Amino acid sequence: MYTNESTKYPSTTDLGQRSRILVVEDEELIREMLILALEEEGYGVVTASEGRSAVEYLKSFDPTSGELPFDLVILDLMLPQINGLDICRLLRYQGNPVPILMLSAKGSETDRVLGLEVGADDYLTKPFSMRELVARCRALLRRQRLSSLPQLPVLQYGDLTLYPQECRVLVRSREVALSPKEFRLLELFMSYARRVWSREQLLDQVWGPDFVGDSKTVDVHIRWLREKLEQDPSHPEYLVTVRGFGYRFG
Ligand code: CA
Predict the structure, then answer these.
(1) Ligand 1 centroid vs 115 CA: distance in angstroms?
(2) How many H helices and E strands in the chain?
(3) How far, CA to CA in Å, does 128 sit from each of 104, 207, 231?
(4) pLDDT bracket for residue 7 (50, 70, 90)
(5) 182 alpha carbon to ligand 1 midpoint, in Å?
């Protein structure tokens, strides 16, 4: 019934440090299967077999620092002592934003709705495959990671606007299509307006230290950017050549 099929998945845990998952489940067999599948994915797993110890584990949440002891909680609905719904309610009441994946043997719509209503982020009905469970965990962790990323400020210079998060650039209120390298180059320039960069520095920053090739690559990309951004590419206002040194923005 509970098959561990997670082996064929490419792992995405290298996106950051190892995520910590608290598994709250009273059925030993399912608990063991969950540990196996999640550890194989590279997650750090802590388990609780009833509600009270789960609450104890989760207590160390400090709302002032926002530090979470776990990145995700997998919470069974029917538990001895304190049930999953009450734990969920309690966590949200305390302002704890940890993502919660609720498990239930009941497949009824009311349970699902109730689970989500008390603050669970996702809901899985038993029996489920470990593959499905791992995919849901991964999605919740990804969402969590994205929402905790700092917001990048919009860069504005003259009639250029660059939206770092959306990878969009507006020139004189019109959107221009840039290649990823052109975008990174422009983002770097706009982040340090008037700073002079050598071709080698630009290669290092945008193409990376492992790039094998000629610094002419930079000149070619600058030319393409000028054609897309400048009103008169032969007399650039934005991407200015600094003779003997390299390039400057603005
Ligand atoms: Ca149970």
Answers:
(1) 14
(2) 8, 12
(3) 10, 44, 59
(4) very low
(5) 54
Residue pair 21/45 in contact by the 8 Å Cβ criterion: yes
Superfamily of domain 12-148 in the CATH hierarchy: Response regulator (3.40.50.2300)
**Average pLDDT of span 24-44:** 95
What is the model's pLDDT at position 64? Answer: 67
DSSP 3-state assignment of 54?
Answer: helix
Instruction: State the distance from the centre of ligand 1 to the C-alpha of 57, rounded, in angstroms.
Output: 18
Query: Distances in Å between the alpha carbon of 225 and those of 123, 154, 236, 238, 243?
Result: 47, 19, 10, 10, 18
Distance 129 CA to ligand 1 centre (A): 17
Cis peptide upstream of residue 127 (ω within 30 degrees of 0)? yes
| CB contact set of 98 (below 8 Å; sequence gap of 6+) | 58, 61, 68, 70, 71, 72, 73, 91
Using one digit for the tens of pLDDT, what is the confidence trace for 12-31? Answer: 434 446 899 999 999 999 99
Spatial distance between the Cα atoms of 65 and 233, rounded to a whole number of angstroms: 50
Q: Which CATH number fits domain 155-249: 1.10.10.10, 1.10.1040.10, 1.20.1250.20, 2.40.420.20?
A: 1.10.10.10
pLDDT per residue as tens digits for the range 67-77: 778 999 999 99
- Identity of the residue numbered 210: D
pTM of the model: 0.56
- Whether 131 shows a pLDDT value over 70: the answer reads yes
